Amino acid sequence: MGSVMKKRERGTRKGFTTGANSAAAARAATIGLATGAVPKEVKSLLPNQTRVTFIIHDGAVMDSGKAAHAMCIKDAGDDPDCTDQAHLTVDVRVLQGKAGEIVFAGGKGVGRITMPGLGLAVGEPAINPVPRQNIIANIREVASELLEAHGLEITISVPDGEAMAKKTLNDRLGIIGGISILGTTGIVHPYSTAAFRASVVQGIEVAANQGQDTVVLTTGGRTEKFVIASLPQLAPACFVQMGDFLGPALDTCAKEGIKQVIIGGMVGKLTKMAQGEVITHANRKAVNTDLLADIAKACGAPEDVCKEISEAQTARFAAERMEALGLDAAFYQALAKRTVDTLMERYPHQFALRVMVCDFSGNALADVRSDGVEHV
């Protein structure tokens, strides 16, 4: 009997966020100020109110006991996170006479906010509100006596953070010079679609908070490159890579009062949209090739070709058959119109919609607009 190859399961080991690691390092450094020695490990409080033990590196008390240093190495678990193994480094300094104050500073490798819309003031380090509160909670637990007389300045830095940030959306959001200190629970869940979905929502909220009335949603890197080149007049914040999260993206556009939505896509994802799917992942539901066959028929394709398209597995097959017949321009235009009609039915009077279609090389294939639905 032949062996059966098992599909490799994705890892399930959880990790800890940049925020959780920063809080642990801050707790350790603050203990150093309070006791004269930075511990080798700390049991740190997470934002979800659980406690986890973190190993502490490079602990040191300096400046005659007025400053301390500690570092945690981020373990992202089985999540393919670009900040895995980042060295979350914290320096805590006593602010003489400023009783009870805790202030934050961003060191090298931590981004700085340059645009409004992220819930942090322009010029502030990109340390999100939940991690800030979590860091403060850990510090107050171990330094209540010290804080009765003095304040503390918390400087977070991340060696190589600037290089890591190039693999994130930070630059698009106006976060310059490094990564963000993030985390709402403190825990990283492997292959977290929730994290990506949240980044899509946040991207649209940032555009709205900046006063942009247009958002351009793309399904991936190639479609994003295509629409950016096609729409040079739009600000970078207008472009949001939504991946498969069409529904959450459009819901957020409606909620935030975006007046015009532009979708850049290729034939496969657009077919999913045209058939009414709000999550367009390939594993969720098969492409409706009967719909493609109907569109092909309406464009003048003969019955035998329509039958082939209906029996095929991919939308790309339909596109190739229509190209061979010289009907590809009409086919792409009709698919884009079907997409517009389907989405306008789902979101009536919410926003104007434009669908731009490109091929795998980024060449424009079709461009269809809704008939001027007024924003309500």
Give an overview in words:
The chain is built from twelve helices and 18 strands. The chain is of the alpha/beta class. The protein folds into two domains: 174 residues, CbiD-like (2-Layer Sandwich), CATH 3.30.2110.10; 177 residues, no CATH class. The strands form six sheets. A five-stranded mixed sheet has the order 4-5-6-10-7. It has a five-stranded mixed sheet with strand order 15-14-16-17-18, sandwiched between helices. Strands 1-13 form a two-stranded antiparallel ribbon. Strand 4 and strand 5 form a beta hairpin. Helix 1 packs parallel to helix 2 and helix 8 packs across helix 12. The longest helix is centred in the C-terminal third of the chain and has 19 residues. It is elongated. The protein starts with 14 loop residues before the first strand and ends in a 7-residue tail after the last strand. The N terminus and C terminus are likely disordered.
Number of domains: 2
Structural class: alpha/beta
What is the tally of helical segments? 12
Termini separation comes to 65 Å
What form results from the Cα inertia axes? Answer: elongated
Major beta sheet summary: 5 strands, mixed
Number of strands: 18
Poorly predicted ranges (pLDDT <50, ≥5 residues)? 1-10, 372-376
* Strand-residue proportion: 15-25%
- What is the string of SSEs from the N terminus onward? EHEEEEEEEEHHEHEEEHEHEHEHHHHHEE
Radius of gyration: 26 Å
Query: What is the residue-averaged pLDDT?
Result: 89
How do the strands of the widest beta sheet line up side by side? 4-5-6-10-7
Query: Which range best describes the helical content: under 10%, 10-25%, 25-40%, 40-55%, 55-70% or over 70%?
Result: 25-40%
